[in-house]
Amino acid sequence: MHRFITSLDELTDKPPQHMLLLYSGGLDGTYLLQQLQSLGSTVTALNVRIGDQEPSAAAEEQARKFGANFVDADVTDRFFNEFAPAAVHADALYQEQFPVGSTLTRPLMAQTAVQVARERGCDVIGHTATYMQNSSIRISGSIAALGPEIGVAAPFLGSDVPRETKLAALEDAGISFPEGIHSIDANPWARVIECGSLESPENRLDEGVFRWTRDVAHAPADPAEILLTFEHGLPVAIDDRPIGFGDLVAHLNLLAGEHGVGRSSGLEDTPFGVKNHEVREAPAATVIIKAHQVLANAVYTAEEHAVRGAIARQWTTTVVQGGWFSHLGESLAKCLADLDRPLDGSVRLRLHRGSVTVLSVNSPNGLYYTRLGKAFHTSMSEYSYTPWLSLATLPSRLRRFGAPR
Prior knowledge:
Number of domains: 3
Strand content: 15-25%
CATH superfamily of the largest domain: HUPs
Oligomer: single chain
């Protein structure tokens, strides 16, 4: 049976021999490091970087202060090679509203943690997600799928320790944290903000929380036009200039953000029925997904489009709920990538004061009839329409026949 530790009491009763703790230097993780030090467990603190240029010196200093080994892992390339592309193939929007964010990073963090835990001989991997965060099942589920021999410690699931208590305990140890009112989770694909005034969706949105996107009232008066080129469903060039996926995302985050594109506000379902309010900004993801949807509409048959849509929605739901490495999640992802094989072409878009307007689409595999020119109309003029109309209307005509007037 897989070992799960879901409270601080359980952690105290049966401390791990060697815990690998996912650690970015925040309040929750630092408080947990303090608790682990008092238990005498060996601890390795793992900082998984996705998009950050340099390791966190503060995180390393704090980890070592509590006797933990510190490991830094930059997995940005893996994020852009394996995880973000899956989101593009699926047009991954949470409940078809806004681009997913931590859904992409948590399984990657767990994958990295399992690798390092095996190298270091750790018997447990720990994280600080709570019952109000879907990250708990995304991390725990991924660890269980990839490293079934390794235990999982999520002590803040069952132990709700007030922020004030954590701050006071760490102040006694000479560590202080700024009293930020918002909780922020950012990766190159999305920046998610919650807590504080954003806790309730009934409050008027505080637009001062945005950093990547400009308010539309202050966005440039002149729009920007871009041409995105795709191969097999993934963007490979902008304005006919080849560009790596990571560099493209960085460029579009700046450009689209400058024009106010990519803001959203919505409610995320938690595993326990209630909803958590989140605000996010994802300029590049918004533009790329829009272009991908347009290209798919031009290339897919009606049947392909319908089937792909159903598979994409199921994959997104599966990974949101922690099933990235499940058999279903992996199988659906492969299917979506395979369906995207004919998605080659370019989409021209206008970015202007929060909006994304499609100006043109061009694909060598497009099914729009103008690609055939006059030959299409010539062939259609030879078509016999009477049998088609007769068969197409047969059920309605039969059902109406003999119906009361």
